Amino acid sequence: MKIFLHPLHSLRRVVLVSFLLGAAVAHADNADITELLKSNQSQQALKLLDQRLAATPKDPQLRFLQGVALAMDNKNKEAIDTFSRLTEEYPELPEPYNNLAVLYANQNQLDKSRQALEQAIRTNPSYSTAHENLGDIYAKLASQAYSKALQLDGSHADSVKPKLALIHDLFSTGPGKAKAAGPATPSVSAPQPPAQAAVVAVAPAAPVAPVAAAPEPASAPATATPATPAAPAAAKAAAETAGTPATAAAKVETASAGKSAPAATEAVEAAVHAWAKAWESKNMAGYLAAYSPDFQTPGKQSRKRWEEERRVRIVGKSAISVQLSDLTVQMPQPDQATVRFSQHYKAGNLDTRSRKTLLLEQRSGQWLIVRETVGN
């Protein structure tokens, strides 16, 4: 979906559709609302949302849908307030940041738009929609700077005008040709497959904020045991150590050059399940020990700051459930492994699913995470 800006006209693939529209996370209870939004019946959707939010005012999915409906109904201030509150309470969800950026861009508040998109990318470095939208904002800022340069000194016309023309052509040609400039009107697209990660709210990547450390309702679900496929004995044993301090939760038997491929795979699986168990049980010592000293933190933030953010967003939850399924391991080298799986994350009112990829390396007898991406 697109939103149109003047003079650049377009901010591509804007996520003004709830993560409920993703096929993997659709909630039947709200199917009627999503259908109304897809058919641009925002006022009818708002009436239903008001009724349901009266019963469950803290429901994040309903509140996200409300923000979508408000934006579609051109109630931008209310939409901004709704998405802003969601970013405060659920900072691991990139879509609210992205939608804030779109609404700010419509008001020509480009610095705020840029900051919101950068936060979305910090939250989920694999969020391609935010990367593309950020590029569009940079282009808009460049256009303004070039225009200002011409205004201040017309002698620069020979060098500046070709650059302005390039920016104009970028947004006015090709398959994504923009509509004529006019009022910015967000539109809701049809559901897309979860793999595209454009409309699906991803579960928090471990290094990227799970859920904000906000108070949870008393009815928050109790911590559940991950519903993974039958794990090897070593994986189960490692997971059971999650409540122990320091590196015990992450330390597992490793595959040396003399061990068979199945044994190496089993050790990698054990490390991943132990990491998930430590996260679920809020065992920060075991959780942080699962990451290599060389771990690529999101947004290039310092390791210390990343650990502090993770601690706040994990320990503050009343209950967390992290369930892994469809786990596959590829080992291009004896000391490297790429693990892909489906993750089902629940904390309080938040219930999300995503695909995740971990790159692990064997270090001093342990398999440690060096890179983590969501949506792959």
Automatic annotation (TrEMBL):
Keywords: Repeat, Signal, TPR repeat. Pfam families: Cds6_C (PF24125), TPR_11 (PF13414), TPR_16 (PF13432). TPR repeats lie at residues 94-127. Residues 1-28 form the signal peptide. InterPro entries: Cds6_C, NTF2-like_dom_sf, TPR-like_helical_dom_sf, TPR_rpt, Ycf3/AcsC/BcsC/TPR_MFPF. Gene3D superfamilies: 3.10.450.50, Tetratricopeptide repeat domain. PROSITE patterns: TPR. This is Tetratricopeptide repeat protein. It comes from Comamonas nitrativorans.
